[in-house]
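Note to self: keep these together.
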Amino acid sequence: MSASAPSIEPVAPSGAAGARARRTGPYRPASWNTVGLLLVVPYALLFLLFVLYPVLYGFSLARDPQSYVRLWQDPVFGNAVLNSALFLLVVVNIKFVLALFLSGFFVHERWWIRILAVLFILPWAVPSIPTILSFRFMLNPEWGIINTVYFNLTALDGPNWLNDRWIAFSMAGMVHIWKSLPFWTLILVTGRLAISKDLYEAASVDGASRWQQFRHITWPSIATLYITCTLLSMIWTLGDFNSVYLLTGGGPSDLTHVLATLGIRYLRLDQVDMAMATIVVATPLVLPLMVYMMKRLSRGPGED
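Structure:
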């Protein structure tokens, strides 16, 4: 019977040396810190030059309290706030309800659905200027293709699509949905594809209907993604001016302006302080959305 060799356990350093080792961890050369700082410097300069400086300069242009008094007294501003709120609360939510249901269609693995998916993504992939201007030409009350076809079928003149406030605003909302719907549908499709198919197979064996599968499997799995994308889309939509500016130009009579296009209107009138004040006024609408979204993203998977 052979005797086993005694085990020798490492002795942890004691005293000041041990405390220093536990505090500092593995040794790194001082040159590493220098290299790290050198790599951070270009990013810091770009951030200061292209992010922080423009923001501070914009706030400095809007520092005069009289700019906000004149902005409040401008009747166009009230309409712009109302239109922006309608865009955020109505148009964005209609867009995401459509994206939610369309994602359930495009998630199926059939060859013809894949072809439709490629065609469906084209409005988002094509630049905004030619696509939205093409809508503006089609909606022209005199020679637009929509009223031309309507007249050939009914012998009646079509409506002035862009000369009525609410019709023009609805057309701008429709164009916004048509333009951005493919992107958000694709995001929700990726969320659906991340759900295990075994859950749906088990639910089918148990006799669950399509609605029950959506309610108890699909929605709980993509609810966080859906809400986060909705908030992010609201933030982007608040700063988006393409759908309104390219289609209606804020007309008729400046009644379809949103906050983003109102700032451009003031710039064209050479009222830079008013334009910057419009952006500052929109900030309280953006910050709560950003704070709420970051809180949701920072929660753990088991937290509500």
